[in-house]
Amino acid sequence: MTPELAILGAVAIPAAGAVGVAACGRVPNLRETVTLVAAALLFLAVATLVSPVLAGARPSVRLFEIIPGLPIAFEVEPLGMLFALVASSLWIASSVYSIGYMRGNNEAHQTRFYVCFALSLAATMGIAFAGNLITLFLFYEALTLVTYPLVTHHGDDEARRGGRLYLGLLLGTSIVLLLPAVIATWSIAGTLDFTPGGILAGKVSEGGAALLLALYMFGIGKAALMPVHRWLPAAMVAPTPVSALLHAVAVVKAGAFAVVKVIVYVFGTTAFGPETFGWLPWVAGFTILAASVVALRADNLKRRLAYSTVSQLSYIVLAAALLAPLSIVGAALHIATHAFGKITLFFAAGAIYTASHKTEVSQLDGIGRRMPWTMGAFTIGALSIIGIPPAAGFFSKWFMFVGTVESGQYLALAVLALSTLLNAAYFLPIVHAAFFRGQDRRDDHGEAPWPAVVALVATAAATLALPFFADVPLELAGQVGGAPK
Amino acid sequence: MTLEHLPALQVVLPLISAPLIVLVRRRWFAWALAVLVSWISLAIAVTLFLEVGRTGVITYAIGNWPPPWGIEYRVDALNSFVLVLVSFTAAVVAPYARISIAAELPREQAYLLFAMFCLCLAGLLGITITGDMFNIFVFLEIASLSTYVMIALGQRRKALVAAYQYLIMGTIGATFYVIGIGLLYLMTGTLNIADLAGRLRDVGEIRPLLAAFAFITVGIGLKLALFPLHQWLPNAYAFAPSVVTAFLSATATKVSVYVLIRFYFTIFGTSILFAALPTDEVLLVLSIAGIVTASLVAVFQQDLKRMFAYSSVAQIGYITLGLSLANEAGLTGSIVHLLNHGVTKGAIFLLIGGIALRCGAVTFDRLRGIGRRMPLTAFGLVIGGLSLVGIPGTAGFITKWYLVLAAIERGYWWLVAVIVASSLIALGYVWRFVEAAYLSPPDERSVKQGEAPASMLGFAWVLVIACVYFGLDTSFSVGAAREAAVLLIGGAR
Amino acid sequence: MSLASHYSYWVTIFLMIAGLYIVIARGNLVKKLIGLGIFQTSVYLLYIAPGKLIGGTAPIVAEGFRTYSNPLPHVLILTAIVVGVATLALGLAIVVRIREAYGTIEEDEILAQDRREEEQV
Amino acid sequence: MRRDIVLRVIAKLLIPFMLLFALYVQFHGDLGPGGGFQAGVIIAASIIFYTIIFGLPEARRLLPEWIVETMVASGVLIYAGVGVLGILLGGNYLDYFVLDHDPVHGQHRGIFWIEVGVAVTVSGVMLKIFYMFAGRRRDEDNG
Question: How many other CB atoms sit within 10 Å of the CB of residue B476?
Answer without folding.
Answer: 15
